[in-house]
Amino acid sequence: MKKELRIFFTAMMFLTRLPVPRFTDHSPDYLEKSVKYFPLIGYMVAAISGLTFLIFNKYISEDIAIAASIIAGILTTGAFHEDGFADVCDAFGGGWTKEKILMIMKDSRLGSYGVIGMLSILFCKFLLLKELPKFTPDLQAPSINIFYNYRYFLLTLLAAHAISRLMPVLVMRFYDYVTDPDSSKSKPVATRKPTVPVLLIPIITALLPFAFMSWHFLLAIVPVVYVAFSLAKYFKKWIGGYTGDCLGAIQQVSELCFYLSMIIIWRYVI
């Protein structure tokens, strides 16, 4: 049990800026095994973002609440995934060879493609999150329990952050890691592919929110998987596999794809 706690806190330290116990370190062994808790960390980020939304929505406005929830998520993770997405935009936008792409991706400076990509994904995330409360049936007859009124919205947040963090783990299982491993912060996570038994834990964890929703919402997972593996295939074509930044980009795009899929299901299926 103590070992599993250390592995969990290692995942928490790797993916977020939340405080962890002092006994948590950067042990390569624990970091390698921490991938099974990535969706669980997603729940934590979603919980912080959802609570922020509820507070600001109650006392200010819905738009401000959505913006605040996005900022809360970014502060929680330290823009870990957003930074990866921006680096991918710069690298694949400005590089035409594997060597050039990897070189740009390692550059800490942010270029035009990265800025445009970052602004675009945040803008899309805001618009998609703005649509979600409109399709929450409970708002037609709200109760005094705000968590009950927004339970579908909150469940969607939980599912989105969990599923989107599951996608990089799946990509790690089926694709190869590329770049200089000695200088990469993702080396311990990516040096060994997750085994099938290890994959079962994050898969089951990521699917838990769907137990409290209509089965129709499971359909949202299909386009997310397709988009995630399409990106992985694109990365393999150009650089022979994935990097840590590529995994961050997959997480961000998967999250947006999940929100869009949920909205479509709400509007046209349910």
UniProtKB/TrEMBL annotation:
It is a multi-pass membrane protein. Its main location: membrane. This is Adenosylcobinamide-GDP ribazoletransferase. Pathway: Cofactor biosynthesis; adenosylcobalamin biosynthesis; adenosylcobalamin from cob(II)yrinate a,c-diamide: step 7/7. GO terms for molecular function: adenosylcobinamide-GDP ribazoletransferase activity; cobalamin 5'-phosphate synthase activity. Its cofactor is Mg(2+). Joins adenosylcobinamide-GDP and alpha-ribazole to generate adenosylcobalamin (Ado-cobalamin). Also synthesizes adenosylcobalamin 5'-phosphate from adenosylcobinamide-GDP and alpha-ribazole 5'-phosphate. It catalyses: alpha-ribazole 5'-phosphate + adenosylcob(III)inamide-GDP = adenosylcob(III)alamin 5'-phosphate + GMP + H(+); alpha-ribazole + adenosylcob(III)inamide-GDP = adenosylcob(III)alamin + GMP + H(+). GO terms for cellular component: plasma membrane. Its EC number is 2.7.8.26. Signal peptide: none annotated. Keywords: Cell membrane, Cobalamin biosynthesis, Magnesium, Membrane, Transferase, Transmembrane, Transmembrane helix. The keyword Glycosyltransferase does not apply. It is found in: Cell membrane.
